[in-house]
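Q: Second attempt. The first request was missing the SMILES, so the protein and flavin-adenine dinucleotide are both included now.
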Amino acid sequence: MDRVGDSRITKVVIVGGGTAGWMAAAALSRTMGGLSIRLVESEEIGTVGVGEATIPSIRLFNALIGIDEDDFVCETRGSFKLGVQFHDWGRIGDVYMHAFGQIGRSLGMLPFQQYWLRGRAEGVAGRVGDYSLNETAAHQNRFGRLPHIPNTSLDGIAYAFHFDAALYAAYLRRIAEAAGVERSEGKIAEVRRNGETGHVEALVLENGTAIDGELFIDCSGFRALLIEEALGTGFEDWTHWLPCDRAIAVPSENAGPARPYTQAIAHQSGWQWRIPLQHRTGNGHVFCSDFISEDEAAAVLLANIEGRPLAEPRTLRFRTGMRQRAWSGNVVALGLASGFLEPIESTSIHLIQNGIARLLAHFPGRDFDAANIDAYNRRIRFDHERIRDFIILHYHANQRTDSPFWTRCREMAIPETLAQKIALFRSQGQLVREGDELFVEIGWFQVLTGQNIVPRGYHPMADQLSREELSGFFGDIETIVAGAASRLPTHDDFIAQHCAAGVPA
Ligand SMILES: Cc1cc2nc3c(=O)[nH]c(=O)nc-3n(C[C@H](O)[C@H](O)[C@H](O)COP(=O)(O)OP(=O)(O)OC[C@H]3O[C@@H](n4cnc5c(N)ncnc54)[C@H](O)[C@@H]3O)c2cc1C
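A: Got both inputs this time. The predicted holo structure:
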């Protein structure tokens, strides 16, 4: 009989050296003993080179691989992110924020939003953002590390990062190589499979070198070299819900202080991101090619950037959806190889990290047990579908009348899971987070409200406070939040003091 150790996987091969590949390499090398890890990438093919805004969960990943945060922000010429500010999404002229972190506080059995709904109906509540430290600080371009507001029961600042995608991959590479990961340069020309099991056995580079392994992690980007080209796993297309299929990206000079948040500005046939870094601003126009040409989309982008462009605009093409099975046989796909959800809520890097965390939890033996693989795939599907629903909400709940794109988004049929969430909210403002879906109730609340979905009522328990008590409740929170925000340094000062990258070469 085999000893337990005999069935252990010892050889892992990662295909691709973009964000996904190096995140996987860093995480596996830092957390799993006894593995030999080789990463194969081709400089000639290169990486997608975008993906510069994140959400707070990335801090867990940083902690997992032992990153010093200031060093990381400095090395990636990054900045801090308190949320996403949306312009013109519900109606032209609307501005709202999906800020990270707590808003107000719950009271008794009810979440804050129930009191806010009553307060708004009675004219005693201000804007949702007045009760969010993140949003209040964002409006003032302030940032600081403040886990709690001192002497109160309120949470402090919740944050993520903006960073330069190429520098991030390089940073992770240094960590991974220091932890023993080996790298092979070259184009993969052939994928060899076992005739009986169908498992991938080896990759052959153009120069004839063969690289064998037991577990293969496909981080080859949109091409999906192993999971699709070799194994033909299949792709579930979601473009009928998320019709944007291209982006034009261009970096520009910074024009003013770095905002501690991402901006998402809706245009007639899509939307534009602005991501502030220390040395430049990342800009991109995500659009649907059924409604606007690439030249027109580039013109819209160039007319709406704040500083001088630093490069020629470049086009990226994509298809929204997910791989039918992110894990098939001995191949696990991560990153763009596993699927694509557009970047409106900066969820792709989170999904890479999530895929890695789930892979660690379900790390296989050499038998590649089918029950284990199925469990992994079910969880990955759930994670993708719930994020997909949240993203669709931004498009669907619009009242814009200026273009056929927005009319199509408003009139399209939506997934039943999303329809149920909206219907529940419309009745009396209730929100239920199911399982460990990524976006929490207060995130949904900000977007639903920001997109002008107004519930018919609120929970009757919110009537337990008198009108004066309710007004005092809001007033106290607003005062605490405003005071805490005003004591934070400006975002630029914080960076200068803790993690300034200096002048780029
Ligand atoms: C327009 C746009 C905006 C985005 N914005 C965000 C955002 O703000 N936030 C966010 O979280 N995510 C964002 N993303 C997603 C994010 O860019 C990706 O999730 C991330 O960069 C991971 O990419 P990747 O590593 O999977 O693929 P890639 O970066 O494409 O890397 C693929 C790797 O595979 C290698 N490779 C491919 N074929 C071969 C071969 N035959 N032989 C050898 N090597 C090969 C390549 O050389 C490369 O190293 C965005 C994506 C797009 C398209």
